[in-house]
Design a protein that fits this description.
heterodimer, A: mainly alpha, B: about 80% helix, about 0% strand
């Protein structure tokens, strides 16, 4: 059991390494996409500067606090797309019957699919996350805690994406809804909790768990609480297990299109 | 002209087939709008009745109207299709055909946008009526003068997108540039009317395509001003002329750079 887990981690690591090497083949395109993504994210500072010019605080949050929402969200989102970008291609694989190539390998299918691709611009998200943290809330403690929190955040986001994408096993063309819900998840992460009414907050704590990927980590960075941290870890484990269950339940519904293909 | 109209007709018929996919995206649009409306409700939650001359109702309508243009003109024809055509080398077939490729894409874009735009318009109007209530200043004259302004705003968006996609002749992927354009429009045109910015940014917005693409059309509906209509239409025409010239230059330079390997 332990050897199997170890082997899977080794394969995932190698897969990510080769994805990275592939991306870096064209250095100019790779660097351009990273720089553009940093610029993209940074442009939203103007949005918040303008809002804070209109209103001194947003709830009890200052500009520095709001930038924590951005740091945590872009860091988690970036890490998820660096490590597990393949999961976002799952609906295409299911709808076009391209999953066969992954099923024939003596590896964990979900882990193999998840690490099959890497989004170069996600490095821009990850770098921006650290930059936002360093510029607006620098401390060594914050950097260490932030690193741990974005790992949890990326696992929550990826698990949520696995659950949504696995619905394509049951409902054809569900990918349109999936994309919309992922966008809502991200928007929920980027905006401070205080702007939402109670009903919306309940949705972000349950059906679309943005609160666990962003709001709780931000609260932990602002004021660490062991209870909240444990809740976050328990939720992360819970959603990962749920993602595996939904994926493998859905996989039983998969039908191949007998498409011949080669995967490197 | 007839050939371009035929292209538009065929694309329009195709877009009807895929209208259901747009309906699915409405969910995402609606929730994104609800989040932004929550943000504005929160900002106005103090004692401020007006912020820089805008009431909460006007602000919500501004946001929705500007977003209609952004979401409504999100057709992939001007972005991915042009980019992929250049990257895959299929552009080599297009340059030999008896039509201008940029004009062909523009007509395709307009036809593909039509249904999408109408759907987003209906959804945004419904959201506006529910969360902000009807605009008192809106009347039949506003409706009539808004139609050409919104059409030209969509046209400018499509043309700008095509211009950015043509950069694929030189760069590996034009998507990062498209994203930057989207963010600039979003921050300086959609989220806030230009009155919310310091005077220097206001001046830049006033003389940039943002004025014709977002601020002008949205503000026109809110203010129902015929003077503003003349200003917006004039700036849109100038922007279209400038972008047309740029497209023509960039396309010609790009096509000249094209190397075709037979096979």
């Amino acid at each position: 059991m332990l050897t199997a887990v170890k082997n899977n981690f080794k394969i995932m690591f190698l897969s990510i390494k080769y994805n990275l090497m592939r991306c870096m083949e064209n250095n100019v395109a790779f660097m351009t996409s990273i720089i553009m993504m940093i610029f993209n994210n940074a442009s939203f500072i103007i949005q918040w500067l303008t809002i804070f010019a209109l209103k001194e605080t947003v709830g009890s949050y200052t500009l520095n606090d709001v930038m924590l929402f951005w740091a945590v969200s872009s860091g988690s989102f970036g890490l998820a797309h660096i490590l597990f970008n393949g999961i976002h291609k799952l609906p295409d694989y299911i709808e076009e019957g391209k999953l066969d190539a992954y099923l024939t390998m003596p590896k964990n299918v979900l882990c193999y699919v998840a690490t099959s691709s890497l989004e170069p611009s996600a490095f821009g998200d990850l770098i921006y996350g650290y930059l936002a943290l360093i510029i607006f809330n620098f401390s060594i403690k914050n950097i260490l805690l932030y690193t741990l929190l974005i790992i949890l955040g990326s696992l929550i986001f990826t698990s949520f994406a696995v659950i949504l994408n696995s619905i394509t096993f049951f409902i054809f063309r569900f990918s349109y809804v999936t994309e919309a819900l992922k966008e809502v998840f991200l928007n929920g992460c980027l905006y401070p909790d205080v702007i939402f009414k109670r009903a919306v907050k309940i949705i972000f704590f349950t059906l679309i768990p943005s609160a666990f990927a962003s709001w709780i980590p931000v609260h932990l960075l602002m004021n660490f609480s062991l209870n909240k941290f444990l809740i976050l870890i328990i939720f992360t484990i819970f959603i990962i297990i749920l993602a595996f269950i939904v994926f493998y339940r859905g996989l039983k519904n998969y039908s191949s299109s007998n498409l011949m293909g080669i995967r490197g | 002209m007839k050939k371009y109209l035929n292209v538009a007709k065929t694309t329009f018929n195709d877009s009807i087939q895929y209208a259901t996919s747009i309906i699915f995206r409405i969910g995402g649009f609606t929730i994104t709008m609800l989040i932004l409306i929550s943000l504005w409700n929160f900002i106005y939650s103090g004692n401020d009745n007006l912020i820089n001359g805008y009431s909460l109702k006007e602000m919500i309508w501004y946001l929705l109207l500007a977003e209609i243009i952004t979401f409504g003109s999100g057709s992939k024809v001007a972005t991915n299709e042009v980019k992929n055509c250049i990257k895959s080398g299929n552009i080599a077939y297009q340059v030999t055909k008896p039509y201008s490729y940029p004009i062909y894409v523009i007509f395709k874009f307009i036809a593909d946008t039509f249904i999408r735009f109408i759907i987003f318009l209906l959804v945004a109007t419904t959201l506006g009526l529910i969360f902000a209530g009807p605009l008192e200043t809106f009347n039949i004259q506003t409706l009539i003068i808004s139609i050409p302004v919104f059409f030209l705003a969509v046209l400018i968006t499509g043309m700008t997108r095509i211009l950015i996609s043509l950069s694929s002749f030189w760069v590996e992927d034009s998507t990062p540039f498209q994203n930057v354009y989207s963010k600039i429009i979003l921050i300086f045109g959609v989220f806030f009317p230009m009155e919310m910015f310091p005077s220097i940014i206001r001046t830049i917005v006033r003389f940039s395509p943002i004025y014709g693409v977002s601020y002008g059309p949205a503000k026109l509906v809110i203010s129902s001003s015929f003077t503003l209509f003349k200003e917006v239409i004039l700036s849109q025409i100038i922007i279209i002329i400038v972008i047309s010239i740029l497209i023509s230059i960039v396309y010609r330079k790009g096509a000249r750079k094209l190397n075709v390997n037979g096979g």
